[in-house]
Each structure stands twice: as structure tokens, then as C-alpha cells.
Amino acid sequence: MAATAFTYEGTRGFLPGHRACAGCGQAAAVRIVMEVAGPNVIAANATGCLEVFSTPHPESAWGVPWIHSLFENHPAVASGIEAALKVQGKIGDVRVLCFGGDGATLDIGFGALSGMFERGHDVAYFCMDNEAYMNTGVQRSGSTPFAAATTTSPAGRRSFGEDRPKKDLPAIAAAHGIPYVATASMSYFADLRRKTKKALETRGAKYVQVHVPCPPGWGYDEKNSVEIGKLAVDCGMYPLVEWENGEVVRVRKIKPIPVEDYLKPQRRFRHLFRGEAGKAQIAKIQELADANIKKYGLAE
Amino acid sequence: MRKMIEGSRAVAEAVGLCRPGVISAYPITPQTHIVEELSQMVADGETDAEYVRVESEHSAASVCLGAVAAGTRAYSATTSQGMMLMAEVLYNIAGMRLPMVITGVNRALSAPLSIWNDQQDTMAIRDSGWIQLYAENNQEVLDMHIQAYKIAEDDRVLLPVMVCMDGFVLTHTYETVDVPTQEQVDAFLPPYDPLYKLDPADPYTLGAFAGPEMYQEVRYQIQQDALGAKEVVKEVARDFQAAFGRWYGDVLDTYRCEDAETIYVAMGSVIGTMKDWCDARREEGGKAGVLKLRCFRPFPQDELRAALARAKRVVVLEKAITVGGHGILAAEVRAALYGQRETPPVHGAVAGLGGRDITFETLDEVRHRAEAGEADFFAGLRRAVVEAM
Lengths: 300, 389
What we know:
The structure holds 2 protein chains of 2 kinds. Chain A is 37% helix and 16% strand. Chain A is of the alpha/beta class. Chain A has an 8-stranded mixed sheet, with helices on both faces. Chain A has a two-stranded antiparallel ribbon with strand order 5-6. Chain A is globular and about 65 Å long. By secondary structure, chain B is of the alpha/beta class. Chain B has 2 domains: 2-244, 3-Layer(aba) Sandwich (Rossmann fold), CATH 3.40.50; 252-388, 3-Layer(aba) Sandwich (Rossmann fold), CATH 3.40.50.920.
């Protein structure tokens, strides 16, 4: 395929030149979200990779008004911005976005996020899910998948890595009855674009959880981010689902591939391929994927 | 208009007159009456503010942070454990130079759990960069909130202000207060018009991180502006007097200190008791005076030195302690006086913790023990209880 010359057109919100790692899934996903969102937005960001690689003072990759306060209060900060815009009569003309990593979203900021949902603030929340605390060096989070090795859930003689399945935050978000919830993947660009557009067109609190592969955290060749992300979706480990007002309204159909195809290229799962015992863990992961496929009717 | 109202109602009316765009709070005793009154004012359309009912104090402060960053005046109130939960956000608000006002209702900290008054909670926030003002009575509380926004939003300051008022003692006490008119307050406090805000027409990045090559300079700038805020506190007190005819001192106030041999230093509502006790001492022939510290942050070192210059003895009475050290205010007063040619002895009495009343008997005890040369001590302690433990 012919190379396409890079242009700044459509990237006004999130500009190049930031310090993300090569192959960063999150940087690519944020670029897509910001292309769809356009210039008339205000973004509130949690502490984390995105914040750190995009705003080392006095530099900033943000072409739209952007604020970072703390690790766990971004949903409340976004709520305050939205309330201020209401008072100023600007809400609607100006959209409020909120970004957090999976640790900021599923763990430390969970209470604030639930509060934002329950109060129904007109905020589009994007959880950039790379499945561990990558900014601090790959420690496990509530979003780390079963059997993944991280620096705080390492594989060892008595451990196959993370011993609990991933927290199902999309379902918890949907249980709040908010108008729109979706899971998406950086690797399915058009799908992410459509879901971002849908979230921005919907009034009220919205939650979009985007799977964003992380080359250093997951341990794979950085040129393969898009491919790895696709494998996660295609094996059923990361189902792409949309909820409206608490009900599932749409899923992305797959022709399921074995989970090994997704696990094998990643360092975080390599301990599962070293012996017979690992096979039992892979079988458990396959069960989790099969349960997703069944629950959401993913198989074509 | 003069009204006989509860202290919490006086706060709510003052806040309403300041026209905040966003109010956000989480209920906690004894702050509750303030936020209940404000909720009712919003429900009745008496104020146009958005009231954001949050799930924690951490989020209350964070909602206000976002609202101020978006260019709207914001207000919250909390106390005790709520203040502790907010602490992380409070440092952040000050560091981000977002001017807002919080009523710091003073209450003890757990453990043991106590809903009653002392000043440990706001004293624990003293290093955050917030300007801290302590009020003596409900008229001062009301007026202090109006002053607080004026100070915080001054371009020379751009730091948040905490108005500290003793829980129950002031919040739940009915007093006659003079409530200014909206026209008066509007004339004194112009609409909030920040230099920088979150606006798509003029985008800024707020809250970037600073590496070792930048951080210390940013903190230096905050320190310089916090110190400079002292003059703004004074200026606003004078302007307020000119506009409303009421004066409580600026950074501090003195009572019968002109010829006083012993000056008693304190903050908050206990000042009222101390003034009465001081009068009684004077009738007995004792040369006592009272110094009310109104502005604890920034700390008015020079003004304290001047006010205590002729005292033979200084006694600091406070409702907080740095456990394992001594009284916090006593240590700061000592530091302020250090290095002068003649420095009076400074005695530190910790009293009134967790709702223990400070009475004339307490103050008599404080005087006797200070005169006997005790440097740091608990006053009003029930010895029998301690011995039975």
C-alpha cells in the first residue's frame, strides 16, 4: 500500500510531537477520538500515561482546552466543568470529554466515575484500557486479564500471574442506566470512530472503554499493535458491545479464533506456554472467552 | 437587614450574595445546616447556582476545581474527616492557582470519633497554599465569606481561601447579624473574570506536570504570592470597612493590648470568651490583653512581632496539636518572635479538644500554669479520667 503523507488536518485536538512510546495504542485511539470530537470540546484527564506523555510543562500536545488535576478525580472535575458550562449557557455548543486509563477508571477513580454516571452529567468518558498501571511500570489493575503477568502479579513457582478475571466495568456502567455505553478497540478504527460519534451525539453520561495495546506492558513488537488488538477482539476476550439505557443493542460479530493466537505473541502470557500446567490456565482463559461469545452472541 | 439567624444560615446567605455558579458539597456534621440552607435556596430559585450533589468530599472539591477552571465562581463546605478526604484536592486547587472559597467548619479528627469542635482539621491543611481566615462570631463569618472571594480572585493572589468557623459554637448558634443587600455585595465583589480558563475559543493546557527543572520555581512563585496575599487581606478588610462599616481587624486584631503585660493569643470563637475573661482580669488588676489571629495563612509574622512587642509574657491557647510535638500555633508564634533583642516567654496551652468547653476556669488554669513557668501543657484536662485509663 502506498504511504500517505501525514497532514495536520483533523488532528487539531491532539497534535503530534508528544512522547508516547512507539506503537502506543492509546495515542492512536486518542487521536481518533479527538479527530471525531473536533475543536469545540474541553477535556479532563486523569493522571497516567496519556497525561504524562502529552503535557510535560511547558509543552502540550493538546490543541483544545485540557485539564489534569489528580489520578482519581477526573470524573468529578469533568462534572464541575459541565456544571459550569450549564451555568454559562454553553453546554451543547461545547462538549466535555474525560480520559482515564484503566487504573484511574476501574480502580482509584471508580467512586467518582459512578457519581458522574448517577448524576447524569453530559460528559463522554473514554477509558483507555491497556490492562495494567503502565505509567508506573506495569503493575496489575482491576482490568488486568486472568493469568496475565505484571510486575505485581508476576508468574512464579506458585503463580500463573493475575489470579482474578478482569472487572466488567462496561456492564457496571450500563447498570447505572446511562444512555450509552460501548466497548471499542484501537485496532478497529472505523468502529471506534462511529462509537465516538455516537457518544458525542448522545446527551447525558456516556462510557466508552477502548482496548489499547501497549507494546512495553504486554511485550510484543511495537509494529504489531493493530494486529494484537484485533486478535483480542477476534478470540472473544474483548467483546465489542454497545448498550443504550442499560440494554445491549449491538455487538460486533466475530469468527472466533482460539485464544492462544492472541496470547502467544505476548510476553505477559508466555509463562502459560512453558509446560502442561500452563495449558490448564489457557483452557480457563478460553472458557472466559467462550462465555463472552455466548453471553453476547458474538459468533457469526 | 438585621436578622436573628443561625450561623449556618448566615454563611448560606453570604455565599448566595456572592453569586457562585457552582456549589458542590457532601454532607457531614456540623457542616450540614450550611449545605441544607444552600440546597433550599437553589430549590427555591433564590440563587442561580448549579448544586452538584456528589458522592464524597474528594469529588466535591474536584467539582469545584473543574468549575473554577471553566471560569465559574465555586463554593464548598466541609469539616473534619471530610477535610481530610479533600486534602489531596485542596493542595491541587492551590497549586493550580484556582481561586475559590470553602467554609472549613472546625471539628475534631478521628480517632476517637468526635463530631465536636476543635481546630485540628483545618490546621492539618495549613501547608497546602490555601489562605486561612478564622472567624470569631457569626457576623464576622458572614462578612469574611464576602471578603474571601475578593481576596482569592485578586490577580495578585489567585489562591483559594478557607473561612474557618467553629463547629456548633458558631454554625448552630443563633445571633443577630446584619445581612448586606445584593446591590452592596455586587458593588464590592465584581463577577469572576479569570485570566485563564478552559475555553475552546482560547485553549489552554491546565495541570501539566513539572520536572525537576521546573517544579521548584512554580512552588517558589506560590510562596511569593501567598506571602504577598497578606497585603491584599489587609486591603480587602479596609475596603470592606469603607463599604459596609464593619471592622474585625485585618490579619489580626488586639483587645486591651496597649498596656498588657500578658497577651493571650488564639483563633476563632474562643476569642469572645477570652475578651470577657480579660475584662474580669482587668477588674482584678491583672494587665491582660487578647490577640485574635484572623489570618493564619499567610502567617503575619511582622504584625505579630509589632503587636507583642511590649508584652512581658505571651500565652497561646489553641484547639489543635501536632502530636509528638506541641501546639502548632504556639510553635509559629515562638518562631515569629525568635531573634529579637528581647523575646518574651511564649507558653503553649492546648485546650478545647473534641468539644471540651473553654471556660473562665480553663483560662484561669492557663494563666496560673503559664505564670508558674510551664512551657507547653494541656489545659482543662480531666485528670481522673487519664489516671483511670
